[in-house]
Amino acid sequence: MYRASDLKKYEYFKNIDYNFVLDSLTGTIARTYILDFAKDLIKKNEEFTMAIFDIDNFKMINDTYGHKCGDVCLEEVGNNLVSYINDDGLVGRFGGDEFIIILFGKRNYDEVRAYLFDLFNGEQVIKRNYYYGDKEIFITATVGCASYPKDARNYDELFLTIDKTLYRGKTKGRNCFIIYVEEKHKNINVYNKDSSRLSYIFGGIRNIYIENFKKSSDVIIKKIIEYCAKELGLCEIAFIKNDRTVISTNPNSKHEIKDECIDLLDSFIIEDEEVYIPSDVCLLRNRVPQVSKFLDEKRIITFAESRIKYNKKIYGFTLFFENQIERIWQDSHKSLLMYLDNLFYIILKTKKS
Questions:
Q1: Res. 6 pLDDT band, cuts 50 70 90
Q2: Strands 177-179, 141-148: parallel, antiparallel or unpaired by DSSP?
Q3: Which of 122, 240, 343, 348 is deepest in the core (most CB within 10 A)?
Q4: Which of the listed residues 163, 192, 221 is the one where a domain comes to its end?
């Protein structure tokens, strides 16, 4: 939490009533003042880097543990961000579960990357547990950033470039940071976010099913998971059949799987859920050694799975694998897994392998 003495050393804050400068919950700089401070830096043509820090799946924390717990997490994350940034810049609350970070001075890509890498891997702010009573809440975040004047000529352009990187980070699976690079990000249209993305994917799956209706079940399932993996940007989607054979988007994937692996996958899923998405894969690795062996063999960082089970008979498992980042799974992934399970059950019951 900032004190008056922390801010009075900056010319912009010298004539502003301190009582209005800070966000009442987090003690970071309130939205209006942190954004105006950035505009003031631009007006003075001072070089700086600005980032939006977005806590992943914060709504889930509020919905699961209550808003008081969410407030405690926000307050502690804000305090830890202030401590981490220290004299390198300033931190403000943009709104909800988002913070603004301003880093002073000219920094090249490698310097910004090193700074954010330490933020993500130092466990001072994120990738760590926060506590509320007897509750443990594992916090991750997505960060998008850009620099002035390297990436933008004015405030509006700067904010747009940051918005593009944050959007890119979320589409990559969250729990990551993205630094603006013109050739990579300039064509991202953040104002064309497809709110019906899942419906679009469902439509694509339907078309694949219709176009390949006369083919075998294995061929249809293979084409569907290849399409889904491409649309979601996943390294691999696999369908494990009840005969222990595997249909996978990875040509190097093993085509047979041992009974103990099936038992392990089955043990994760609660009877009335049929879908398992681990909230903390590292914790799962520590508690269940077999998981570490399974993930290490496939070089997987995180996964999500679902089970096709009707009348107490298991027909297979659908698995999403990620080997690039610790993807934060969303409700849309869960919905897609359930949709695929229903579809694959129909395919298996009506088609031959």
A1: confident
A2: parallel
A3: 240
A4: 192
